[in-house]
């Protein structure tokens, strides 16, 4: 084998390796973009809403005040990093978390100072919530409406 043939084969192998590397890089980037698009679509998807309600003193019915979209991971509290930020001195910075896990909605108290209520009962561990449940965070009360 001559030097020219050996150099040609080295160039050919180098070119093939470079093309394989670029192809693998393109495949990884494409998969990442598709995953990010799927994740963005999941956050845009409507799962339902949390209705902030209040009980008028003279009536027994709940009155709707404000609506918040329900996301697969919805946090409630005073901190500006929460999905639903509430101005309430009885609420903790990170008070409660609502999460979609395994096709069911779960409510979890995040070790808040005053606790989280579900239909008037204290939440001590993560519990499954359903459509129409009332969630108490501080002096606020939310009704969950699932789609």
Characterization of this structure:
The chain is built from one helix and eleven strands, in the order H-E-E-E-E-E-E-E-E-E-E-E. It is of the alpha+beta class. It has a six-stranded antiparallel sheet with strand order 2-1-11-10-7-8, with no helix packed on it. A five-stranded mixed sheet has the order 4-3-5-6-9, with no helix packed on it. The chain is rod-shaped, with a radius of gyration of 26 Å.
Helix content: 25-40%
Described by the principal axes of the CA atoms, the overall outline is rod-shaped
| SSE order, one letter for each helix or strand | HEEEEEEEEEEE
Number of strands: 11
Q: If you average the pLDDT, what whole number results?
A: 85
Low-confidence stretches are: none
| Amino- and carboxy-terminal Cα gap | 73 Å
Structural class: alpha+beta
Q: Main sheet: which strands, in order across?
A: 2-1-11-10-7-8
H/I helix tally: 1
Main beta sheet: strand number and arrangement?
Answer: 6 strands, antiparallel
